[in-house]
Amino acid sequence: MQTIIIGLMLAAIIGPGALLGAPATVTYNLDASQSKFMAHANAGGLLWFKGHNHHLAAREFTGQVEITPDTLTPASLRLIVKAASLHETGADFTEPQKEIINKELREIVLHPDRYPDITFQSTNVTAKMSGTDRFDVKIEGDLTLHGVTKRITIPAVVTLSGNNLRAVGEFSVDRDDYKVKATSAFHGLVRVKNKIKFEFDILGLRT
């Protein structure tokens, strides 16, 4: 009887969560309205139009981050970008030019009717604290683009603030690895470069 009473007193003092153990992970859902996912191609790269660089933004994407409190890791990231939502945002282009670029993106480059999603699923995350609630992380995982999946590593900076998590990073891929064709708005006037740089600045809200 005395043991039961002592146990109840401890539960009242330190709370039931401490006796049961802290949650293994905390989940954050991506808020696309406050996030950014972009693909950049230099002139002569994935697209070409009058020698200008291209800046493609995704309108529609979702994702989820799971972290371990205090240490961040173990952690995971899943990101899903709708390929059809990628569109030209470069200030160098007129609206009619952007329409041409976006049409070729759909019909020649990304084929969203066949490959609707660009996805990334982490397989391993390492983290090093670089400041208060700030971590330098390396996210290893599988990127699926144009129906092809390849293992890549993404460096990023993760910052925690209240119920918010922000992850900022960039990575490059070789389009040939993903069987992504290049296009020229005027049919092959320039040589094609292979590198595509992706950039993200994502905000997650704690569930």
Textual characterization of the structure:
- The protein has a single domain (23-206), classed as Lipid/polyisoprenoid-binding, YceI-like (Lipocalin, Beta Barrel).
- 16% of the residues lie in helices and 49% in strands.
- It contains three helices and eleven strands; from the N terminus they run ααββββββαβββββ.
- The chain has an eight-stranded antiparallel β-barrel with strand order 1-4-5-7-8-9-10-11.
- With 207 residues, the chain is of the alpha+beta class.
**Major sheet details:** 8 strands, antiparallel, barrel
Radius of gyration: 22 Å
Number of domains: 1
Low-confidence stretches: 3-19, 185-192
CATH superfamily: Lipid/polyisoprenoid-binding, YceI-like
**How many separate helices?**
3
In CATH, the topology is named Lipocalin
Topology order in helix (H) and strand (E) letters = HHEEEEEEHEEEEE
